[in-house]
Each structure stands twice: as structure tokens, then as C-alpha cells.
Request: fold
Amino acid sequence: MTSKSFLAAAAVLVSAPAAWAQDGDAAAGEAAFRQCIACHVIADDSGELIAGRGRPNQAAPNLYGVVGRQAGSVEDFPRYGDSLVAAGEAGLMWDEEHFVQYVQDPTGFLREYLDDSSARGAMAFRVRSEEEAHDLWAYLVSVSPE
Reply:
């Protein structure tokens, strides 16, 4: 690899998290995440708690590294709904578009994504607005591993 191509690759890697967040405000998303901590945490690979309370994976999966991850795929979280696992196996990867749609209506999103009227989302909570969903995504991007 030439030094020029190495620098180009490094620039892509350094800017990758910024490329994920497009439409939201990470600071507003951090404030909005307070409503998510009843079930979710964000704890890095060493176990350091970034956001939330309690231990990871008690009620809902740890959201650290959710950006770009296959849906329903955190190995040490045993309680995913079958429909979310099926969506992940069908190719659902968490990007801004899918995340924003999902958090506003988990069951409706999964029914449409899977083309299955019996699909159900296990997450009962719904984010109130599209703007807030984009803000939450921007926050998750801001705390994602590089």
C-alpha cells in the first residue's frame, strides 16, 4: 500500500462515524436517550457505562456498536423477539433510515420489512417524533466505537 492510499484509507476510517450521522443533533439525542435507559444501556467493550443504569443486557440489548450492526445479533442478549432476529437474518442492518423507522413503530416496521402481518416487535416504547429518532441516531453514532 502506498502512503497516499494509506492516508486515504485512514481518512475514511477516521471520518466513518461522522458519515453515519446525517440528520440529527447528538446533544439532543443524548437528552432524549434518558427515556431509553429504563431498558437500554450503552456500555463499551470493557464494560464502562457510557449511558444508562444497571448492567448491560438486562431488559434490552446494549446499544454500543449498534451503528452498522445486524439487527438482533448481540450474542449475549437472549431475549430478542423472533421477528427482529428474522429481520436481521433477512439482511436488516442498523443504519439511520431503518433505525428511525423502527423506533417510531417497531411492530409496524417489522411487519413491513418482513412482509409478514403476524410479525411483532418486542420493544413496546415508541419514539415520539421523526426528529427525535434522528437525534437518537446521531447520539448513538457519537458514542460508537471508531
